[in-house]
Amino acid sequence: MFSGQRRKPSSGLTNKDQTRLRIEKMEAERRERRLVMEKRKIQRAAEAKANLKAGNPGDIDFIGMIRKWREERAHKAQPHRSNASIDDSHCQPALCICVRKRPLSDKEREKLDHDSVTVLNPTVWVHSAKLRVDGITKYLDHNSFQLDHVFDETCNTRQLYESASRPLLEFCCQGTGGRATIFAYGQTGSGKTFTMSEIQNLLVQDLFALLSEELMEDDDPKFCT
């Protein structure tokens, strides 16, 4: 063997073969990315359809982030106090502030607004949808407000009444001159009349039931002030 003789590559692959393999690998990776993107596109379409059916249209990414945030913190919601005696200062404050969340309106759905408020008693969270400085990356800004009672859109007026309104009725019917006021505050269409109308009906029913019970059982009934 001459010392000047060149050795062939041990792999047996020429430069053309190596280039061809790299191209085939790139094409395979490109096909895989396309399949992943197509699968994600189908998933997003299904999510959008499900959100629309649930009455919560809007940006799929933000809705998904809010859903995940709620799932991770659902255990933090506390039960509502019910039928607490208002004359016990350790149990009920002189001023009780409640918030009731309403569902999305038809106008908001038409604008493709999404549900951005989370209720975890006694805290309300507002999720602001934002973009980072790159103009692409999405994220949420969370702001919380703690109150005495907060009710989500699945709660009925009876639950709100038992926690925040009935104790006032009992206080006023103790015969000690107690007085109480309930008022609703909110923008037009927020559900004030809807809520207060049912609270009035429940109050009237319980008021007459309470008075009848006192007249039947007490020789010296204490009338409501």
What structural class results from the helix and strand content? alpha+beta
Separation of the first and last Cα atoms: 120 Å
Low-confidence stretches: none
Radius of gyration in whole Å, from Cα? 32 Å
The counted number of beta strands is 5
Tally of helical runs: 5
Shape: rod-shaped
Order of helices and strands: HHEHEEEEHH
Helix content: 40-55%
Main pleated-sheet profile: 3 strands, antiparallel
Mean pLDDT: 84
Strand content: 5-15%
What spatial order of strands do you see in the largest sheet? 2-3-4
Written description of the protein model:
- With 225 residues, this protein is α+β, with helices and mostly antiparallel strands.
- Helices cover 44% and strands 12% of the residues.
- It has a three-stranded antiparallel sheet, with helices on one face. A two-stranded parallel ribbon has the order 1-5.
- A hairpin with a 2-residue loop joins β2 and β3.
- The relative contact order is 0.10.
- The model has no long low-confidence stretch (mean pLDDT 84).
Indicate the topology:
Blueprint: H1 15-53, H2 60-73, E1 98-100, H3 106-110, E2 117-120, E3 123-131, E4 138-146, E5 149-151, H4 157-172, H5 192-217
Parallel strand pairs: 1-5
Antiparallel strand pairs: 2-3, 3-4
Which terms would index this structure?
three-stranded antiparallel β-sheet, alpha+beta, rod-shaped
Q: Could you write a compact summary of the structure shown?
A:
The chain is built from 5 helices and 5 strands. It is of the alpha+beta class. It has helices at residues 15-53, 60-73, 106-110, 157-172, 192-217; strands at 98-100, 117-120, 123-131, 138-146, 149-151.
